[in-house]
Amino acid sequence: MSDSKTLVLVGCGAAKRDEPAPAKDLYTSTYFAKKREYAETVGDAWLILSAEHGLIAPERVIDPYETSIDDLDDDALDVLAHDVGLSLIDWTTNEIAKGFDVEEIVVLAGRRYVDPLRERDAFSAGISPAVTFPLQTNDLGGIGEQMRWLAERVEAVSAEQPSLVTDGGEYPHPLEDVDGLEEIEVECAVAIETPDEPAYCGGWSDTVELAAPAQFDPDTARITLPGFSWECPECGQPHEFEVEGIRVSNLV
């Protein structure tokens, strides 16, 4: 277990599912998916920044909503900034109490969200870790440029790691069940958008024979699958799969 942690705050998105879902799955845009991928790859923990709810844990089930930052007047922005600040203080305090050193808080949100909250000290009041805003400080323009930057950082970090990390969801059986397996069932679970509705790829599955037995490290929640190439033949994406029915992400 690492002694230090990086928290990533991911700005929400306008495109959503039309039914309640865990917050990490509610937002359906490719832009949100790319920020989530960065958060799960580069960060040790992540939360979602929402104009409606403040900071949301990825696993929290919420209803679809229409509120955006542009809908909030000054009083509502004051309340949101206060709530975000308190949530960050609570999170960092809890992690420090567990023995972690919270090294950095990374905010991945556009200026429309970041600027009014920074003006109200949402990210600085009572918080000791450094708070960074890479989408602003790197002078990244539109969403396309931001997504390229995020993808480059994910690729750079992934190249240094020989394993994958579970996404913290609900699992049908203990992770230890994967340890030692020489043959596994794998299915692509990449979040994609279709013309009809957002969904998961689910377009490819296979039984894979590994070069060596799978290894699970309970201290880091990392699974290593020797000899398997993490790229879906159907959608070409490498970062979301189900392995023996267990949802995993940050595949490297």
Report on this model:
The structure is a single chain. With 252 residues, the chain is an alpha+beta fold. It folds into two domains: 4-158, Rossmann fold (3-Layer(aba) Sandwich); 164-249, no CATH class. It has helices spanning 23-26, 30-42, 74-97, 111-119, 134-137, 143-158; strands spanning 4-11, 21-22, 45-50, 54-56, 61-62, 101-108, 130-132, 164-166, 183-188, 191-193, 198-200, 205-209, 215-217, 222-224, 240-243, 246-249. Residues 8-151 form the DUF6884 domain.
Concise account of the structure shown:
With 252 residues, this protein is an alpha+beta fold. It is 28% helix and 26% strand. It has helices at 23-26, 30-42, 74-97, 111-119, 134-137, 143-158, and strands spanning 4-11, 21-22, 45-50, 54-56, 61-62, 101-108, 130-132, 164-166, 183-188, 191-193, 198-200, 205-209, 215-217, 222-224, 240-243, 246-249.
Which descriptors apply to this entry?
252 residues; alpha+beta; Rossmann fold; 2 domains; 7-stranded antiparallel sheet; 5-stranded mixed sheet; 6 helices; 28% helix
